[in-house]
Amino acid sequence: MTTYAKIKKMCRKVTALQVTLVYLITSTLWIYGSNWLMDSCCLPNLPCLQGIRDGVFILISSAILYLVASRFLITFLYSEKQLHQSENRFRALYENMTQGVIYIAADGHVISANPAAEEISGMPLEQLISMSIRSLKGKLVREDGSEFPWREFPGILALSRGNIVKNVIMGFYHPRRKKQCWIRVDAVPQFIPGNTRPDEVFISVEDITEFHLAQKKIEQLAYYDALTGLPNRRLFMDRLNQMVKRAERDNEHLALLFIDLDKFKSVNDNFGHAGGDEFLCEVASRLMNAVRKSDTVARLSGDEFVVLLSSVHNGSDGQLMAKKLFEQLDPPADIDGHDVSINASIGIACYPQDATSAESLLQCADTAMYRAKKQGKNNYCTFTPPPD
Asked: In what order do the strands lie in the sheet containing 380-382?
């Protein structure tokens, strides 16, 4: 039964009760009052007086009932009209709004949903209304690609805590569009007066797929190298600062390798910019294959790359990584059908032995790299403080 129907039924009950009460009070007062009047005035109990009294009672009570019923009937009809208009306005808004609206009962089952919710979810309205939100477990993801924790689902939080939950972003596979889509979800608990726990939850769902993709594209352009897809200098420095702070807090060690490609200019001269770009992409791919998932590879500029190693045990870990990088870079790259050697000079600096800040650590690794170039290129050197 809809809310409008419930209110309409309640109004009818209230009106009938009021008319009944008025009738009972009027009849009681008239009967007892007329009896008292006849007794106190010592009027003879004649049948004609009894008939007159009953006739007058019928006329007066009928008039009173007519006035009362008319008043409440007019009030009821006006209220019913207002409720009907409000219901039509709400239904029009509910069915035509672009945001998805879902009502969830206290047991977690969907009891109502609008057409926009069907379009956004990709599920038929009949299936959507009959489902339990618990069936979504394992089907939602965070922005980082990890599974969305079930206990943090907005509808669950609103039901369990009775608090409003806003601006939760989730991804899911859209069965109609055959791709991953993104939504922003708000959940508002609904209480019946007197209850301390929510009886229903109002969930608003907004499709932000296009906005999310545009935002990711902007972030890609702002923080990643357009050619290799590696983090650029801006993102790398941000990560380096964070890693230094964490290492300082947890008493850990870091190793930074600064890589500069030797004779890269000759690659550009011989194969053009397209060949040079292909060469750089090949180098980036090999560097990525040499490191752990917890490490960072970035491209700072033209032929300069860096590798940041997290949680190393001592300075020798940086040297072991340098040797591993040379092994990865040793096979020639195939550029336009020609074998091109990949030579690089690598400088190594460690935190906190060589530097205690992100900027100084990068400068130390850069200094060590230039020292490696002076020693014959295609070589690595660790940072050595200048003599006093």
From this structure: 296-301, 304-312, 253-262, 343-351, 380-382
Strands (E), the chain: 100-105, 110-113, 165-174, 179-190, 200-207, 253-262, 296-301, 304-312, 333-335, 338-340, 343-351, 380-382
Using CB atoms within 10 A of its CB, is residue 182 exposed (0-12), middle (13-18) or buried (19+)? buried
d(CA 242, CA 278): 32
Angle between helices 233-250 and 209-223 (to 10 degrees): 90
Longest CA–CA span in the chain (Å) reads: 140
Please tell me whether residue 175 adopts helix, strand or coil conformation.
coil
In the chain, count H helices and then E strands.
Answer: 10, 12
Average pLDDT on 320-349 reads: 93
CATH number of 100-215: 3.30.450.20
Q: Which residue type sits at 313? A: H
Pairing of strands 304-312, 338-340: unpaired
pLDDT at 236: 95
CA pair distance 296, 358, nearest whole angstrom: 14
Residues 6 or more apart whose CB falls under 8 angstroms from that of 122 comprise 174, 175, 176, 177, 181
pTM, two decimals, is 0.60
Tokens in use for 332? 């020639």
pLDDT in tens, 273-282: 999 999 999 9
* Helix, strand and coil percent figures for the chain, each rounded to 5: 55, 25, 25
* Distance, CA of 275 to CA of 339 (rounded, Å): 12
CATH 3.30.70.270 fits 224-382, yes or no: yes
Q: Confidence band (pLDDT; 50, 70, 90) for 45?
A: low
For the chain, domain boundaries: 3-96, 100-215, 224-382
Quick: pLDDT tens for 88-139.
Answer: 776 777 778 888 988 888 888 888 888 898 899 888 888 888 788 888 888 8
Structure tokens at 28: 């009681």
| C-alpha–C-alpha distance, residues 336 and 341, integer Å | 13
Q: What pLDDT shows up at residue 2?
A: 46
Name the amino acid, one letter, at 204.
Answer: S
By DSSP bridging, strand 380-382 and strand 343-351 are: parallel
Copy the structure tokens of residue 130: 């009959």
